Predict the structure.
Amino acid sequence: MDVNAAVAAAAAIAGVLTGVIAMLAFRWSEREQKRPTRSSLHTDAVLPPGVDTVLSVLRSSAVVLDEADAVVKASSAAYALGLVRGGKLAVEPMMQMARDTRRDGEIRQVELDLPRRGTGRGEALAVSARVAPLGSRLVLLLVEDLTEARRIEAVRRDFVANVSHELKTPVGALSLLSEAVMDASEDPEAVERFAGRMQIEATRLTSLVQELIDLSRVQNDDPLEDAEPVRVDELVAEAIDRCRHQAGTKQITMAAGGAADLRVWGNRGQLAAALGNLVENAVNYSPARTRVGIAARSVNAAGGDHIEIAVTDQGIGISDKDKERIFERFYRVDPARSRATGGTGLGLAIVKHVAASHGGEVTVWSAEGQGSTFTLRLPEAGAARDRAHQQPARETRAGGAGLDVEAGRSTPTSPESTAYETLPAPEVLP
């Protein structure tokens, strides 16, 4: 009995000790959980109240560094630009700015060109970095992406330079010709010859100014504000009538064909100007005694039915390297021929922007010595009108502020799929 009692007493004592140890361990665990950790000291605890909310709504990329140059807070845009990697600021010039600002408290700002992540083309990312102290221990870095702003500024400079050059040529010619007229005032034949040249230069200057106005209008106005159903056959007839004189001079036959009674939804004036530019180019770049065809057809597409208007010529054709740039402003495949025909290099740029603002596109197929086929693809009247009513505030302009000079991306289209020969017999117009 005494042995059993001793065993029971020992077991009771062991149980009490186990309970005490478990209770002490539980209390110690709770105390450790309540104690602030190192990571919490470097995030919420060190950020001044409200800073986290302010940084989350800034458009600039934001990074907050502590006294050890560790990242306390970084916006998602900062990670997207590659500024922060592995919890550290990855741009050494910005890191040095942060250290200098932490040392003397002075606000610093600098513009840098950084390598763009994820591209193998060596493109630079232009940024503006501003560093300022945030409290006594932290430094705030704000980074703004200037790449697009610099691109637009470069486009503006190129545009102004091109316009100045194009305007200077006819203006200079008019000045010289007027002096020649004055010097030859007693020679009627010379006066007549110089006056004829002056008239040509004046016409060229007028065309350039008008196309600049047209380009500005199609890029800054919303063509769908006053949109209406427009008959395609009327647009074709108007484009042919516009080029009838030039075609007759070169004995070029113009033929219209394709499906009848087609309608597109848009601004009649802009659509007529775009199609007229395509037909005029076809006539100007075609040899004498050739043929220019205009054909329209309806095409079923996933996003809704479209109308394709194809303009086919038998001209000199376009090389592959030129096809990538023909929709740029002032770009000419053959500058000598363009100047001889009065071309300004703005016609296809206007076509591209009219197509884009109407929710369509313009594509080109061409081969040197085999002619070209330009296809204007526009939403059909019914589908386009429904989308316009559902989304009245939809932005469809291309290029922004009328300064986008990038080449239009064109999908090659075989001439067999759009040329007028494959459609119903065309009506030959004199």
About this structure: The longest strand covers residues 124-134.
